[in-house]
User: Fold this.
Amino acid sequence: MRLLVDTHVVFWATMEPARLSQAARAALESEQHEVFVSVASVWEIAIKVGLGKWPEARDLLFDFERHMDDAGFDLLTITVAHARAAGLMAAKHRDPFDRILAAQATIDGLVLVTADSDIATLGAACIW
Assistant:
């Protein structure tokens, strides 16, 4: 299975793994799964750290690539197709970061690992 990790799950997986659900932890630790992290998550973390809303994510942000390498997560870029799909989603869910993650998951055939049940309204397959 190919997985895309939500922003908070990226933080929990690398900094506070006890906060992961059993299903999420098992999926992320399985050697049979390929795990991706969107560059949108770096952007979201940077905005929240910069605004002082997520200071505990500062270490993750400034050593992001090493944390992803250590976790065995691959970075997923944002394409024009991802951006277009995210912008055209007809759901009421308005968070632009959730929309781009849902678009990436849908277009690239990924299962989104997220604790946010609202993301499912965007049409992406999700596990938690």
